[in-house]
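Bench notes, afternoon.
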Amino acid sequence: MKTYTRYLPDDAATYSVGEKLAQLAQAPLRIYLSGPLGAGKTALVRAFLRSLGVQGAVKSPSYALVEPYNFSNYSVYHFDFYRFFDQNEWQESGFRDYFEENAVCLVEWPEKAGGLLPQADLEIELSYQLDDKPEASPETAGRRIEVNALSPKGQVLIEQLSKQQ
């Protein structure tokens, strides 16, 4: 399994990774994003969508559960399962069809679906990380991103992403 790991010192670095992923992505693709609240999952998705030309508001679909974005040759679905309390909610949601289309599915909090989601191509883990400076504090923490490939398509994406760094 291929892995891409980087320290992201600020929002601009997080946005840069999101933009690069968007430029490399081809449907169908499943990207699952995990990490604590505020770690940058939505920021990464926002950068991904902005890079594809989305102009309007890009918000976390915490209440709607999914925000669709339609492009000429495929759709992007941004899911947020934070409010799921058990895996039955995934089964009852009717979202399974979205994952079978010619689409890019970006899923925040995939673990809330209890392992019922189709296999991801990429799993992204975002976390807070202090840099190596002695004056670093949680308030000035950057982020750590770890991207794991779980499919041949994901492995190719990580290889291409690594070459761009």
